Amino acid sequence: MSAFPWFSDLAEHLADGSLALWVGGDVPQTLTGVPTCQALAADLAQRYGLATGLPLAEVAQRLARRGQRWEFTDFLQRTLGAADHGPQSWHALLASLPVSHFIATAYDDLLARALRAGSRPFDHLVQAGQVALRTPRAVSLIQLYGWVAQPDTLVVTENDHLQLWENAAKKALLDRVRAILEEHHLLILGQDLADPTFKQLWANTLGRFGALTPAAYAVAPGLSMAAQAVWEDRHIHILEDAPLAVVERLHELGNRPQSM
Known about the structure:
Mean pLDDT: 89
Structural class: alpha/beta
Low-confidence stretches: none
Order of helices and strands: HEHHHHHEHEEHHEHEHEH
Radius of gyration: 18 Å
Helix content: 40-55%
Number of helices: 12
Strand order of the largest sheet: 3-4-2-1-5-6-7
Number of strands: 7
């Protein structure tokens, strides 16, 4: 039996250009070189005497209530934007896949830098106004939760997430993400599936297309069988393999010479 359930389907979607990638902020630090959202939350909570185990959105919300939004914004910029952070082999693997659409909820720009290093023409879409100006046939990288170098684009606190749907500065980005989800199969890496914003976005897509929604695949090792069943009902198949193993296998297939 294959160690990669659903992999033949993923390989087919990659080959026919119908696969998009969703890259979250919880890819292991051993791969990305930067802390996960979970690790960022734990560090912030410890620094400011908050309860441990809270998600990043809740930690940031509590600081924002104290009038300390600048505290976690500065923390994210210093932690994720440090000069010694650079794209890792993980980012290079992602950037070299024959995929035209990347949706990121990580706050760093390491994937963008890997795409640039690979000389792939791409549009780095962080603000709504950039969507209408995107280059035809170029790769798109949408940073839905913003980028630390542009603090006004960040979606961090609980209120940021709740207000995302009414945020005019994000509307065109959300519309573009919905269009990608409706037209492409999706491989999800490093995304907390319990993230309310992700769940709402996916529910909206399912609500419009139901059983016709393109299949999605989430790399989520360790997810309980009960949770897997819930996501299967939502047309997201759970892959229990390690994220690097899945991406390396896709990279191998995507760069295999085509037979004549």
